[in-house]
Write a structure and sequence with these properties.
Elements: H1 2-18, H2 31-34, E1 40-45, E2 48-55, E3 58-61, E4 66-67, H3 70-82, E5 87-88, E6 120-126, E7 129-138, E8 144-148, E9 155-157, E10 183-189, E11 196-201, E12 204-207, H4 217-226, E13 232-235, E14 243-249, E15 254-262, E16 265-272, H5 278-281, E17 284-288, H6 290-296
Helix pairs in contact: 4-6
């Protein structure tokens, strides 16, 4: 009897040891299934609140009536949908701030609007119930601290859940994108001077009537105007532009930027655009990044003006 009993006990121990531990529970149960039809996401970051609304394959920012940058929102939602609570962490609300999952957050932005370690709160409807998730600090060895409001504790998830350092980065930076081969002319208008028309030709863009391109500055200007981006947007004011740049393309394609400087920053207003795009730009001004702005301010002489 002793041998069979020992064998049975050994088999029982081996069986118990061979059982795999159950996988960690989903961080937000039901989000993976709800994600394809999710219509609205609310975000709080610092003092800012944004509402993202789905429109076809894109997300729009409601109050700004502007496109959301898919490079941030889409990966974040997919990451949350697939995230699990891989390690249970503190349930003590007094300790939430240490890992960035307290809300409201005590983190303050720098004077230029950047958060050193950005955190935020997202909320959405899943299975008819509002869920709210606080995205905390990244963990040094990988993963992200996170807390689902109403859960018994915070979590360390192996998922990479990242927020932009600035709220303005949620806004799609692209104003428009025109392939350079479709650009037929760029016109530079400065007060008190004749309009300078640059056209593509041998060696790049050159003043209309010139035989060859004299410098690369005209090419750089045309490239910047064909693919302008913005860093920040605000309601249009009364600033007077000091230069107007027009892009002409195949057919009746036309865009125009009116630009001016405020300190070291360049701001722009879109004063002409195709009918199907013009509503996006109305009533707004855009701050341009330096790599876009600098070519737009090229001296007329270096562009080949007489």
């Amino acid at each position: 009897m002793r041998g069979p009993a020992l064998s049975a006990l050994a088999l029982l121990v081996l069986s118990a040891c061979s059982r795999e531990a159950p996988p960690p529970a989903p961080l937000v149960p039901g989000l993976a299934e709800a994600l394809p039809a999710l219509a609205e996401v609310r975000l709080q970051q610092g003092d800012a609140s944004l509402v993202f609304e789905r429109e076809g394959e894109e997300w729009r920012i409601r109050d700004a009536a502007w496109r959301a940058d898919r490079r941030w929102l889409q990966p974040l939602l997919l990451g949350l949908a697939n995230a699990r609570c891989d390690e249970a962490r503190t349930a003590d609300a007094a300790r939430f701030e240490r890992i960035g999952v307290a809300w409201p957050s005590a983190s303050e932005a720098s004077p230029d609007g950047a958060f050193a370690r950005p955190t935020g709160r997202l909320s959405f409807i899943v299975e008819g119930r509002e869920m709210a998730v606080v995205i905390g600090y990244p963990q040094a060895r990988g993963g992200t601290y996170v807390r689902v409001e109403g859960a018994p504790h915070s979590c360390l998830s192996a998922a990479t859940l990242r927020l932009p350092a600035r709220v303005s980065e949620w806004f799609d930076p692209q104003l428009w994108r025109i392939p350079i081969e479709r650009v037929t002319a760029v016109v530079v208008e400065d007060p008190g001077a004749d309009a300078l028309r640059l056209v593509p030709g041998e060696g790049g863009f050159r003043p209309e009537g010139a035989i060859i391109a004299l410098t690369p500055d005209a090419d750089a200007l045309a490239s910047a105007l064909a693919n302008p981006r913005q860093l920040d947007l605000r309601a249009a004011g009364s600033a007077e532009p000091t230069r107007v740049l027009r892009l002409e393309g195949e057919g009746s394609l036309t865009y125009a930027l009116a630009v001016w400087r405020e300190g070291e920053a360049t701001w722009a207003r879109v004063i002409a655009a195709p009918d199907d795009a013009s509503a996006w730009y109305q009533g707004r001004e855009f701050r341009l990044p330096e790599d876009v702005a600098a070519p737009l301010w090229a001296d007329r002489g270096t562009l080949g003006a007489p």
